[in-house]
From TrEMBL:
InterPro entries: Amdntrnsf_FN0238. This is Amidinotransferase. Pfam families: DDAH_eukar (PF19420). It comes from the Bacteria.
Length: 309
């Protein structure tokens, strides 16, 4: 197996994670998140706390810098999914996003933004959260899967991804939007794009059959293949096991693909071989957190900023 270890703008070497002290499945968001396996709001704090603790430690063992924040609030059940309310970008840019559900809006926190300003070169913070008053939402790198190499944003049509907010973000951050419709095997709209696809430096993982329009399906696959980036097609069953909810990171010995053990176990040997040609796969055990409808990608906010020295 040949692993390409060079730097890539797609793969951040630092991340932000939030460790929950009071974790429950968010019953408010279950209305449009078919990936939630239960709407039971039982306290799962101990299990979720241990899962994030172990996941962060494994990432650090691989040489990824993990900025680990604590979440003590009982009114922020989804605080572990920090990638939805902010993102970072080359050129010192930070975006803060408008979220659909009131319980999720409480996850935004100034101490994370101040840490980024203090430890990295931040030139501008663009805050879109005021759009919530108009019922306009764009839930960060849940709504958007960003190709930092080709400067493209992939986004599934949903109530959580408003075309007005998406167009504004793409204009201000210099990305081309590619918007499409997608449904799961039961006919439900996909709520977040990052459960459907993962874009890495040398490949993409996509639940191709979930993309509704055949023309758009071909266009998206062709974009990657023309650039020499093979598409690993994921089945509906694999998407339901969070196989698309992965993120490429840069560790001390090269690039890795962080994904859940649930997702890893759903991949075929051929898929693992294709992915393993450019990254090392790092399965993380987070089954409790996955009950809330998100997996590894949702728990990781990549830091695409230059470190201060």
């Amino acid at each position: 197996m040949t692993v390409r270890s060079e730097f890539s703008v797609q793969a951040p070497s630092a991340v932000v994670m939030v460790r929950p002290h009071h974790f429950t499945v968010n019953t408010e968001t279950g209305a449009d998140n078919s990936f939630q396996t239960t709407n039971d709001a039982n306290d799962l704090s101990g299990l979720a706390y241990a899962e994030i603790t172990r996941a962060a430690a494994l990432l650090e063992e691989q040489g990824v810098t993990v900025h680990l924040f604590e979440s003590y609030g009982r009114d922020v059940p989804d605080s572990v999914f920090s990638n939805n309310w902010f993102s970072t970008h080359a050129g010192g840019l930070v975006a803060i996003y408008p979220l659909k559900f009131p319980s999720r809006r409480r996850e935004r926190r100034s101490d994370i933004i101040e840490m980024l300003k203090g430890q990295y070169r931040v030139q501008q913070v663009v805050d879109y959260s005021g759009l919530e008053a108009d019922g306009v939402f764009l839930e960060g790198t849940g709504s958007m899967v960003i190709d930092h190499i080709d400067r493209v944003v992939y986004a599934v049509n949903s109530d959580r991804t408003d075309p007005i907010a998406l167009a504004r973000f793409c204009t201000q951050f210099s990305f081309e939007p590619v918007v499409f419709s997608a449904k799961d095997s039961r006919g439900f709209d996909i709520y977040h794009t990052n459960v459907l696809m993962c874009v890495a430096t040398n490949f993409a993982m996509i639940g191709v059959d979930m993309i509704a329009e055949s023309g758009t399906r071909r266009e998206i696959v062709n974009r990657f293949e023309r650039a020499g980036r093979p598409v690993v097609g994921l089945t509906n069953a694999q998407i339901e096991k969070f196989a698309g909810n992965a993120i490429e990171l840069l560790g001390g010995d090269g690039r890795i693909l962080a994904l859940s053990n649930t997702a890893f176990s759903a991949l075929t040997a051929d898929q693992i071989n294709i992915i393993g040609e450019s990254v090392r796969l790092l399965p993380l055990e987070i089954p409790t957190i996955e009950r809330a409808g998100g997996s590894v990608r949702c728990t990781i906010a990549g830091v695409h900023l230059v470190r201060r020295y």
